[in-house]
Amino acid sequence: MDFNVKKLATEAGLFLTRAVQFTEEKLWQSEKTNLDPDFENLMVRADSTKHWTEKILRQTEILLQPNPIDHTGARIEEFLYEKLDMKAPSRVTNTELLGQHMEDAAKEFGFESPYGSTLVKVGEYERRLGVVEKDFIQTADISFLSPLRNFLEGDWRIISKERRLLENLRLDLDACKTRVKKAKAAEAKAASEAEVVPDFQETRPRNYVLSASASALWTEEVEKAEQELRTAQKEFDRQAEVTRLLLEGISSTHVNHLRCLHEFVEAQAAYYKQCHLHMQELQEELRRVPGGFGRNSNQNEPPPSSEPESASSPVETLTIEEVQAPASGTRKAKVLYDYDAADCSELSLLADEIITVYTMPGMDSDWLVGERGNQRGKVPVTYLELLS
Predict the structure, then answer these.
(1) Which segments constitute the BAR domain (predicted)?
(2) Staple partner for 116: which of 109, 207, 243, 328, CB 3.0–4.6 Å?
């Protein structure tokens, strides 16, 4: 019991000493030990790393789980399952839920109707997108988010703990410096008073004896304060070296986070690529749905490509070198729909672009020669709107 009381009293004394030192520093009444510039730069770099890691982590979590309420609930659920040493169940993504709603609506409206059959197709692909999204979220969490969390919950906590300890030792060191300074000032004052020869007729000898005794006491106090200062300086230097090593480890953290960032980009690229492929497949499926609206539903659907022309047709061997724009008879045309060239004699088109077109002798009336910069090739007339 006595040991606990003494320990409590010691800790209370240390806390009070540090509080006094901190207050005096804020009031510019006490000197403060400054760290070297390199050490300060390391701490600034560490603080910046922690700040931006938190922001990137939080925003990535929002990207993967857009609804803040669902995101918070998901994190709590994961925490509970982790504490219970159980695997969290797979959650349905918003895209999967949308697909499920579409399929349920198709059952209500009937699969035979154009709307119902289209809902089934779209719902199926939305669920596929949801599965791809779920895989991406899992991959991003393992390869990118987990290392960021590990840094904040592991390395950064250790760094923060050691920095707090370093600050406490710095306060103790400065308090010792202040104590030594005050003790030396008091010793000098007592020594000057003791050097004065007393006048025994006017002053009692007892005052002279007290002055000499006080000077000896202050000399002893100075020696004790200097010993405490040496001890405090040694502890501070040792803790500063430990903290410096931890702060220098931030460079390794950056290298690790850089690798994780590359993995995140790869996962994101694969995710969007897979989504794009699914949407292309869905578009093709929708064009085959009877009574549906295809890509060109707002215009009359262009007729299919004509039968292959004979080998003797001049446009079959159309190349940039052989085709030259006529001096007159060229017109501007606006492309109505995207068109993918079937072979090297044709020119691929993008909707809404403007190209130059003209005819050639012997060319089928369903085709024109199109020119875009140095690219030339035949293009279907039904995909164009001739401009005056």
Answers:
(1) 24-299
(2) 109
